[in-house]
TrEMBL record:
Organism: Marinomonas profundimaris
Keywords on record: Membrane, Transmembrane, Transmembrane helix
Superkingdom field: Bacteria
UniProt-listed GO biological process terms: signal transduction
Listed GO MF terms: cyclic-guanylate-specific phosphodiesterase activity
Residues of the EAL domain: 31-285
Gene Ontology CC: one annotated term: membrane
Coiled-coil annotated residue ranges, if any: none
Subcellular locations according to the entry: Membrane
Protein name, as recorded: Diguanylate cyclase
Length: 292
């Protein structure tokens, strides 16, 4: 019986090990494929930017849009940025990809303006690897100049990972960005090693509360308490708060009661293709009423 137990432990141990190994192998193979395909995707034009409206929770009017990458590969099908952006970050592809995102966003802004559409500020997500490059700001300024885009039309969303790696270097860059008139948002707040003390010293304008909190805000009193605390502390520090991932009226009502300023989520709108923009009710309303 003792032998039997050892035998079982060994086989089950081995079986687990093999399963894990196989899973890791498949993961690795897919990542390599994503990397290879992504390198070609930029030139092959099967990347796209979509835009998700941001809504003022008091007036329910559109006050901005977030640019989000969409990739539809001939072989892999549609791949989520939640999967390919981390791979782009690890492999350095994020640098040309990030340049493409800025340029594409500016092209769309220009096209909309030429169509006479009122364009609200556009938020672009930026990875730590991009901001760490010394040529980040010169490249960005050259692009803004090329497309004659007013920097105040641009918001930059960063996650706190950048602050942990190089808080001092980052602070200087963020101050420069802010001085040029661009707005700064800290994304996915509450998930990483976020600390409100970062916000005290850095020139952020917006705190974006991560979707996990909003998703559970009704059912889970801890998420409710954290959301409430983030909102009041951010306000005390002079920052506006954006809630991500609002999907129902109960969440909206609670966030309004907590004084949350801005919301994003499927309740209002998912991210829209650039050419459907002018027909979107939110953008139509914005154009009828004008920017605030
Ligand atoms: P993020 O910046 O936090 O963007 C919010 C994500 O939540 C987007 O996912 C958006 O489509 C999704 N979302 C919005 N409202 C709802 C909702 O009501 N319910 C649910 N379930 N989801 C909602 P997406 O587009 O898949 O992007 C995932 C992440 O990929 C982004 O998170 C961002 O970190 C990254 N990403 C996307 N585009 C870019 C980019 O151009 N550059 C960089 N560096 N990262 C990007
Ligand atoms: Mg974002
Ligand atoms: Mg986020
Ligand atoms: Mg995110």
């Amino acid at each position: 019986n003792a032998d039997m137990a050892v035998y079982q432990a060994k086989t089950s141990g081995r079986a687990t090990y093999h399963f894990y190994d196989g899973e890791m192998g498949r993961r690795f193979a897919r990542n390599v494929r994503i990397e290879t395909r992504l390198r070609q995707a930029i030139s092959k034009e099967n990347l796209e930017l979509h835009f998700q409206p941001k809504v003022d929770l008091v007036t329910e009017r559109c006050v901005g849009m977030e640019a989000l990458l969409r990739w539809n590969d001939e072989e892999l099908g549609s791949v989520s940025p939640a999967e390919f952006v981390p791979i782009a970050e690890q492999t350095g592809i994020i640098i040309p990809l990030g340049d493409w995102v800025f340029e594409q966003a500016f092209k769309h802004i220009l096209e909309w303006q030429e169509l006479g559409i009122i364009v609200p500020p556009i938020a672009v997500n930026c990875s730590a690897a991009q901001l760490k490059r010394v040529d980040f700001l010169p490249k960005l300024l050259a692009l803004l100049d090329k497309y004659k885009i007013d920097p105040s039309l641009l918001e930059i969303e960063v996650t706190e990972s950048i602050l942990i790696e190089d808080a001092v270097g980052c602070a200087e860059l963020l101050r420069q960005i802010s001085r040029l008139g661009m707005k700064l948002a800290i994304d996915d707040f509450g998930t990483g090693y976020s600390s409100l003390s970062y916000l005290k010293d850095l020139p952020f304008h917006y705190v974006k509360i991560d979707q996990v909190f909003i998703r559970n805000i009704i059912e889970d009193t801890k998420h409710e308490a954290l959301t409430h605390a983030i909102i009041s502390m951010s306000h005390d520090l002079g920052l506006k708060v954006i809630a991500e991932g609002i999907t129902n009226a109960d969440q909206l009502q609670m966030l309004k009661a907590f004084g949350c300023d801005i919301g994003q989520g499927y309740l209002f709108s998912k991210a829209l293709g650039a050419n459907t923009m002018s027909r979107d009710p939110m953008i139509v309303a914005l154009n009828e009423q004008g920017l605030e």
